[in-house]
Amino acid sequence: MKIKDKIYCTCIGVYSGQLTKRKSYIIEEISTEDIKVQNDEGKLKWYSQFYFSANNEPEIISINIDDPIENIESDAIEVTITFSNKAKYWMTFTTPKHLDKILDEESYFSSKHFMIIKHLTEESIKSTVLKLDEQDELIENCQKY
After folding, report:
1. Which domain of life does this protein belong to (predicted)?
2. How much is the pTM?
3. Contact between 62 and 48 (Cβ < 8 Å)
4. Beta carbons of 26 and 39 less than 8 angstroms apart
């Protein structure tokens, strides 16, 4: 990386108001471990090189709700997430009430790829996926196809 190179934010860390994941920034100055860029607030600021890459990460191009939502308070809905590099992942959204129903029938519940939300709506599912992606927690909560 050198001054005036275009770099891409790969992780916003604690800088959610200052950086945007996958957005490009121009390097203004470089030190051993940090780079100075103009952030989303229009300020020149130093950030660790850890937050950036010369390559843009794949973007989410679709969030597909695979099952019909029949009961927003007690259901399990599979969702497919497709990225611009053609990678596909899936996860299941459910509610606390559905979890109670499962635990009435089984003695345990494995939550490796389940995301528990209060109400199953298209808006709440999509906003949860985007929030998980913003916080770099999406892929670890999904299963790859």
Report:
1. Bacteria
2. 0.74
3. no
4. no
Query: Do the beta carbons of residue 98 and residue 74 sit within 8 Å?
Result: yes
One-letter identity of residue 7: I
CA 43 distance to own-chain centroid = 25
Question: Which tens digits make up the pLDDT trace of 70-100?
Answer: 999 988 999 999 998 899 999 999 999 988 9
Q: What length does the chain have?
A: 145
The one-letter amino acid code at 51 reads Y
DSSP, residue by residue, 35-56: EEEE-TTS-EEEEEGGGEESSP
CB 79: neighbour CB atoms within 10 A? 21
Q: How far is CA 99 from CA 80, 90, 128, in A?
A: 21, 19, 18
Residue type, 109: F
